[in-house]
Write a structure and sequence with these properties.
three-stranded parallel β-sheet, 5 strands, 6 helices, two-stranded parallel sheet, single chain, globular, alpha/beta, 2 domains, 11% strand
Length: 141
């Protein structure tokens, strides 16, 4: 399932999807109810190809708040907020074998302890974020 997969590389993605039988994937251009979307996944995989491909990283928090075991690469803010957990696998960039191994590991153990939280979401409270963002903008001026 590819959700919200649009942008600079959408043509490349569509080209790669041409190698997969249409009955084996679905594309969702945009889904407003992200909580419902995340709950469709047995495992959530978000593996940007380098440390700067993911900027803000809301997706890391959303998947955990929706109780999904997740496979990530350290990109964007994740390197600052990640805590080790049995429900999150951090894999090397562009490593299909590591992603597959993490999926197999998660599928062998069905229960998820995601409610314990694998990310520190305190910094994403709106009361914290707005002053930090304002400070950042003011420092640029």
């Amino acid at each position: 399932m590819l959700a919200n997969a649009k942008g600079d590389y959408s043509n490349e993605i569509k080209g790669l999807l041409g190698n997969i039988p249409e009955e084996n994937f679905i594309e969702i251009e945009f889904e407003e109810d992200l909580s419902a979307l995340y709950r469709l996944f047995s495992i959530y995989v978000h593996t940007p190809i380098d440390a700067s491909s993911e900027a803000f990283g809301q997706t890391y928090i959303e998947s955990q708040l929706c109780g999904r075991k997740s496979i990530f690469t350290l990109s964007g803010v994740l390197s600052e907020i990640h805590k080790n957990s049995s429900d999150v696998a951090i894999v090397p960039y562009r490593n299909i074998e590591a992603i597959f191994e993490a999926m197999q590991s998660f599928l062998s153990v069905r229960e998820c302890n995601c409610q314990e939280g694998t990310t520190n979401t305190d910094n994403f409270d709106i009361k914290v974020m707005v002053p930090k963002l304002e400070s950042l903008y003011l420092s640029i001026l």
